[in-house]
Amino acid sequence: MKRSPFVRLFNRPLTSMEKMLLGIIILYIAIVTIKSPQFFSLSTFFDLFRSGSGFLILALGALIVFISGGIDVSFAAIAIVSGYSSVLLSIALEIDNLLFIVFVSIVIGVLLGSINALLIYFYNLPTLIVTLGTASVFHGAMAILLGMKTFTRTDVPKSMLDFGSAQLFSFEVDGARVGLTVMAPVVVAVIVITWFLLYRTRIGRSVFAVGSNAESASRIGMSILFTRLFVYTYVGGLSGLVGIIYFSNLAYINPAAFVGTELPVIAAVVIGGTKLSGGEGTIFGTILGVLLWQLFQNTLIRLGFTASFNDLFFGAALVAILGFIYYRQRQANKRALVFSTN
Amino acid sequence: MINTVRKMLGRDREFMVLVATTLVVTAILYVLLGDRLFSLGGVQSMSIQVSEFGFLALAMGLAILTGGIDLSIVAAAGLAGVMASLVMSGLIIPVTDDNQGMLFVLGIVVALVTGLITGLLNGIIIAKLSVPPILATLGTGILFQGIGMALTSGNSVSIKVVAFSQIATLAIGPAPLVFVLLAITFVIVGFILKKTRFGRRVYLFGENEVALRFSGDRSERTIILTYALIGLLVGLAAIVIIARANSMRVGFGQSYLLQAILVVVLAGFNPFGGRGRIISLAFALVLLQVLSTSMTAFEVSPYAKNLVWGGMLLLVMALIHFVRKGRKVGAKPQDFSGGTTPPTGSFPALRSARVKTSSMGVRS
Lengths: 342, 364
Prior knowledge:
Oligomer: heterodimer
Radius of gyration of chain B: 21 Å
Number of strands of chain B: 4
Largest sheet of chain B: 2 strands, antiparallel
Distance between the termini of chain B: 26 Å
Order of helices and strands of chain B: HHHHHHHEHEEHHHHEHHHH
Radius of gyration of chain A: 21 Å
Number of helices of chain B: 16
Mean pLDDT of chain A: 87
Number of strands of chain A: 2
Largest sheet of chain A: 2 strands, antiparallel
Largest interface: A-B, 71 and 65 residues
Structural class of chain B: mainly alpha
Strand content of chain A: under 5%
Strand order of the largest sheet of chain A: 1-2
Helix content of chain A: over 70%
Low-confidence stretches of chain A: none
Order of helices and strands of chain A: HHHHHHHEEHHHHHHH
Structural class of chain A: mainly alpha
Distance between the termini of chain A: 38 Å
């Protein structure tokens, strides 16, 4: 029997949500291409990679939290706090080394993430409210301790500027240079690592198990504390990485930026078919969700809409897809006589 | 008389703690700031500020009572404000001397109706499609903001109806009109929750949605009505906001979301639903406003303010956690799938099972 490459690679067929999203995205791309043919090119593809890299990494972090049965809204704050402190440290110590900056940022992200994990584990509270609180504590503490000074291009460490503009390879197309950013392999690496951790390790299994039923997971001897620590430190570490990617990409460091990005990221993960109740969610679906968001962000202008329409279209798509997913589950629950909404 | 007061307070220890905290904090700040804060003018301006935010806090409180949460209130208030401002800006209907009164009324109606529609939409999505409230309101929040953005392109819309800003400045005796309005709304909502069948259903739904459905109640209608009420409150908040600023811009008041959740948690509402009193909410609101105004008097930066709000949120939740753990009363059966963990201990699963049964037994 002939099997599609996706099945061969991941050993599973596409979920219906993924099929639907894929359909929507292909349809949308077709419409945009008909409207403005120059859209369908390698340079657009590279641009999407460039602008979406940080967003996608954050979405993978949010996905893991969702699978573990929680919801995290502090990762944007963690990204800014760890990225900004790390840059300040490298300027103060005059160590202009990208590895050093990234390492420090990831370490700070991991520490902040573990604070989240411990609070959630010990106080037994809704993760949304806890992370909402820690997000403003982290950001406020940074503003008080480190100040809110912005850095323009001349002050940004040179290694970060190089990282932001470096390209894996580039070539001429119609007189314009097109290149793939070095963020691309980073993103691919994060995807592969996340996939491996989730599907090929014990800790990944326990993330799924704790997400679908914490009680059962703890009865078969999985440590809930350890699982939560893993989940939130992993998200923290990814956020630390994104902080540096974001600043490098912009070549401008503004500690007030980026706040509020968490909602679109969560929305993109949810569109990918991830369930709030935990234990369910796929990496491919998340990638598709992020792609849809990126397409709306970057291409609505080609259909004749200004940037002010981005939220309208994305919000409408999000509400429609949410309604579709959960209405189907509601029907299934009715048939199976499941009454609890959890 | 004293006995009844004592009986009333003794029944709800968290409420007593809250009232005591409010009084102590206010007293300390009075000593520190004196007339700067507590002159007649100072109190009046505080009560105007609290009105803007109070409606949103009440809306969030209702959502949390049902075991949900409403992340769209700020965006919905923004949309209602934008719609009302557009009506009164002269961009759609030119403002002349004759139609000012008509536009004034129309503006208020548009704000309320827009709020009501946003609430109904949330309610229908949550009740009829079974979308979890967090996700439903996350989506509609982005949608409402998107509609506001598309209508205004992010520009501020200013109001040309002269009399409208008087809503914020008019006073009944010493009390500002908007504050009286807020107080009346609190009393009405408190009455609805406490004395009507609908109110009991709201609590029941937050407590045990499945049990409510099995008792033959139309629980879906309760949810739709609750979110419709939230929408009306959001519309009222929008009216106060645009009356104070005399204009509206999408994205206004983003920090209110955190503060609204903080106030509700501070008031001792159970974040999993089913528990919370409107009178506590009123006290928590006063406490928060007094703190906020004194921080402004001390010239605390907005970021530091946010730090204080976030820190308070975590601290209060930790305190309530320990108070409830100590008493083992009113501890809600654990909602594992909602991202929480069972209590720690050598046999976490067994212990949580025990907590579950004991709390079910003690609940009244």
